[in-house]
Amino acid sequence: MFLTRLIYTSTIAPSFSADSIEEILVTARRNNSRNNVTGMLCFNRKYFLQCLEGSRTAVNNTYHNILNDPRHSHIIMLDYKEIVTREYAEWSMGYMPESGFTAGLNLKFSGTPGFNPYEMLGESAQQMMLAMKEIVPSKNKC
User: Fold this and answer.
1) Where are the transmembrane segments (predicted)?
2) Domains present along the chain, CATH in parentheses
């Protein structure tokens, strides 16, 4: 089995509702646990940035489901590569909402303190998520 990491960004679609983020997290955690996919989701009420790790087949199938999810629009793959180890092995889907902690990290890994993953390199997005991983609240580590 080859491990892969996929990082993508998307914009919320008009069909996105106030309950959508919780629905996404519950579904992702259930499905990812079943399919041995791990990762992290960052969200600021406008943009998603997500990292998925697992077998090539499981990650590709998960990404295919996201591409067909009406809550996402303008989906762009930022990075896709084979990896030798997972960075998020303990999480079926960690979650980092925008907070005061993230502004400095946005500036460190992109051109502005605002969160806009469309303006990031895939490697910058990965490094930012790894830095966020250290400050994710324990209730969001699932």
Assistant:
1) none
2) 3-140 (3.30.70.100)
